[in-house]
Amino acid sequence: MSGTGWEGEVFEVRLGAPGHGGFCVARYEGRVLFVRHGLPGELVRARITEDRGKSFCRADAVEILEPSPDRVPATCPVSGPGGAGCCDFSFATPRAQRALKAAVVAEQLRRVAGWETEVEVEPIPWGDGAVPDVQGGWRTRVRLVVDAEGRAGVHRYRSTEVIADLRCPQPVSGAVDGIGERAWTPGAELVVAVDGDGLRHIVELAPSRQGGRRGGDRRDTAARRAAAHAPRAERVVEGSGRAVQYVAGRRWEVSATGFWQPHRGAAQRYSDVVAEWSGASPGATAWDLYSGAGVFAARLADQVGATGAVHGVESARSAVADGAAALRDLPWVDLRAQRVERWLDERTRSAAPEVVVLDPPRAGAGKDVVAALAAAEPARIIHIGCDPASFARDIGLYRNAGYTVTHLRAFDAFPATHHVECLALLERARP
Question: pLDDT band for position 67 (50/70/90)?
Fold first, then answer.
């Protein structure tokens, strides 16, 4: 990590509002500090970890001089100052964590979308319907990295260095048992999935030809992401590599290395919200974009019935194949392996959908997709986003295109972290 000026210096600062990314904002001698490991209102000693000569610096709170009443002993021993980036807020009560996330979402919507609204971040019930107010034991899918000595671990925050310590409390019970005691292929990655039947699957991904460094410039980041998503040889170490999942009484069998919501209760919760908001009429047409294995498509299919049509679009061919197998009893569901943008270009003369559900990647849908959806004039759009900034940008695009947000819900899908999942129901303004 290159730096200038203040890097390594320690300053006493009062922390202000939370920012998007797991930090609080402070100011020192006219410059902005993004301080991790602190809470709003706290007086801390902050060590500068990165100073590139710009208007802001990054820092860690290394000593808490005046703690917040929301501070508790940290539940994650891996993510403190100088540690991993896994648990940004494990030192705050669950209620305080949700309040921090709500403040960030509200600020992004105000600043980026031009929309003032109250936000509440809700906990997600687990499979039995209970809502435990805890920070650990919720993650069913874990991705680990292997260092040069063959030890599994996680990356140090904004670094490629591996911390060979698997004590983070996020994974469900038993997910990482024994992994730290085994030797793995240096440079490989491990995907661990505990499925709906409680079976553990471990898949080792061959080392990637990864360029760039974490925390580098945009070119470094692009090279790293391209390498991470390139095809890699897989070796199933435990289980079958095929994870069984259940949502709304339906069974899926999906690749352990493919996408599935990591929180043990998230897929069911989001599916229930989609079913509640979509209101698709019997015989109607519905779209499920970035559909994955078709979890939302299944709920839409129940509503439109055999006289209707559900079109799902997903770029990952393996997910489409898994979805087609799970939904083979619903012939009115058509899942396609294609880029959403291209599919929308080809649907310009097709029947307009009554409702569209879309769950785009972290970067969001963007102006081209939102413009195409607005041109199709669905009565309702259900937009799901896992990044407050891109979610707010997309909401602003919808609002400019004549849609109004009639319902908004945010979920604490990643307890102890700064991440949050947002769902919005948008309805077309009537003349």
Answer: very high
Measure the CA–CA gap between 300 and 156, rounded to whole angstroms.
42
Q: Which amino acid is at 188?
A: A
- The helix-helix angle for 388-400 and 94-112 (nearest 10°) equals 40
In total, the chain counts a number of residues equal to: 431
Closest by CA to 150, choosing from 116, 175, 185, 189, is 185
Residue 180 DSSP code: G
How does 365-378 read in b/e, with b if 16+ C-beta sit within 10 Å? beeebbebbbebeb
The 10s digit of each residue's pLDDT in 302-340 is: 999 999 999 999 999 999 999 999 999 999 999 999 999
Rounded-to-integer distance, Cα 222 and Cα 290, Å: 21
- Triad 280, 286, 292: Cα angle to 5°: 120
Composition of the chain by helix, strand, coil, percent to 5: 25, 30, 45
Q: Does the active-site annotation cover 386? A: yes
d(CA 384, CA 286): 16
Q: How far apart are CA 24 and CA 7, in angstroms?
A: 18
Tell me if residue 195 falls in helix, strand or coil.
coil
Please compute, for residue 339, the number of CA atoms within 13 A of its CA located in the half-sphere on the CB side: 6
- Are 232 and 205 a contacting pair, CB within 8 Å? yes
Q: Which of 87, 168, 386, 422 is catalytic?
A: 386
Q: For residues 222 and 220, what is the distance between their CA atoms, to the nearest angstrom?
A: 6
In 134-223, at which residue ranges do the beta strands (DSSP E only) sit?
Answer: 141-146, 152-155, 162-163, 189-194, 200-205
What kind and span of H or E run contains 394? helix 388-400
Residue with tokens 């692009």: 222
What digits encode the pLDDT tens for the residues 198-216? 999 999 999 987 654 555 5
Model confidence, pTM: 0.93
